[in-house]
């Protein structure tokens, strides 16, 4: 039963992770942590772990980019509840200028598969992935400015599937949630009194309007986590998970280099 795998001391897990963050940051010669705050559960938990590690040296960046307004409201409420220093930078204009510079009307010169900007899924995803890469640039700017490390929010479930943007939300220095499935993230967040509204929110990378992780993946985190923790799943789910893991394995590795 998956419940047996989830029977853990999540308060102790949180304490250990905060201690791990503190040690890793100090080992690097850095002074604190910067985290992207999306209003979702992963960033909320990560920012709170950082706050516990560095009460005075944790910065949360709220970086909306044509995003759901409610997510920003939730991110602000979380930061203020736990007294996390935060800064809001709206990336809408930056993103729009970037897209404008692509000269999409002539993009078919470079990709014969593109016929319609609204109908082409490859173009939609390529544009969507610009957003987390812009956020990464801002996170590292403030990390460099303050001698902080960028602490990522990717959890074990996302890392297993490669469900993140390479050099976007995957462009980080530390990944404290890497050993926690989405279900375990929720349980740890509940132990730390993170708002139920955030814990129960449908997971979303916020890449486009009404985008939801589980809809895009075609399976629930409950199914994914059960397979990761117990090895049990419908054959179709197993195949889907392992195919995604194989396809996206490059995201978890250093660039290939010749060995001669």
TrEMBL record:
Residue sites binding ATP per the record:
36-43, 153, 182, 204
| Gene Ontology terms for molecular function | ATP binding; glutaminase activity; metal ion binding; NAD+ synthase (glutamine-hydrolyzing) activity; NAD+ synthase activity
CDD domains from the xrefs?
Answer: NAD_synthase
Biochemical pathway: Cofactor biosynthesis; NAD(+) biosynthesis; NAD(+) from deamido-NAD(+) (ammonia route): step 1/1
Q: Which residues form a coiled coil?
A: none
Which Pfam families does the entry link to?
NAD_synthase
What is its quaternary makeup? Homodimer.
User: What gene codes for this chain?
Assistant: nadE
Q: What is this protein's name? A: NH(3)-dependent NAD(+) synthetase
This protein's species is Halanaerobium hydrogeniformans (Halanaerobium sp. (strain sapolanicus))
Quote the record's binding site residues for Mg(2+).
Answer: 42, 158
Q: Which NCBIfam families match?
A: nadE
């Amino acid at each position: 039963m998956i419940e047996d795998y989830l029977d853990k001391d999540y308060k102790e897990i949180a304490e250990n992770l905060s201690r791990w963050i503190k040690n890793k940051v100090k080992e690097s010669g850095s002074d604190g942590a910067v985290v992207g705050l999306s209003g979702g559960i992963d960033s909320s938990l990560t920012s709170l772990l950082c706050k516990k590690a560095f009460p005075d040296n944790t910065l949360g960046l709220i970086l909306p980019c044509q995003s759901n307004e409610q997510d920003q409201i939730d991110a602000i409420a979380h930061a203020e509840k736990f007294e996390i220093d935060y800064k809001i930078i709206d990336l809408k204009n930056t993103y729009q200028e970037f897209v404008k510079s692509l000269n999409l009307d002539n993009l078919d010169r470079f990709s014969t598969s593109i016929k319609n900007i609204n109908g082409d899924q490859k173009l939609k995803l390529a544009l969507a992935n610009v957003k987390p890469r812009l956020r990464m640039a801002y996170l590292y700017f403030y990390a460099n400015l303050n001698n902080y490390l960028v602490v990522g929010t990717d959890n074990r479930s996302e890392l297993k599937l490669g469900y993140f943007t390479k050099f976007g939300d995957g462009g980080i220095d530390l990944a404290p949630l890497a050993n926690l499935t989405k279900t375990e993230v929720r349980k740890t967040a509940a132990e730390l009194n993170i708002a139920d509204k955030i814990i129960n929110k449908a997971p979303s990378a916020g890449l486009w309007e009404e985008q939801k992780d589980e809809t895009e993946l075609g399976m629930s985190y409950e199914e994914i986590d059960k397979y990761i923790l117990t090895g049990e799943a419908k054959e179709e789910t197993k195949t889907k998970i392992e195919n995604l893991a194989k396809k996206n394995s490059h995201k978890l590795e250093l660039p290939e280099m010749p060995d001669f």
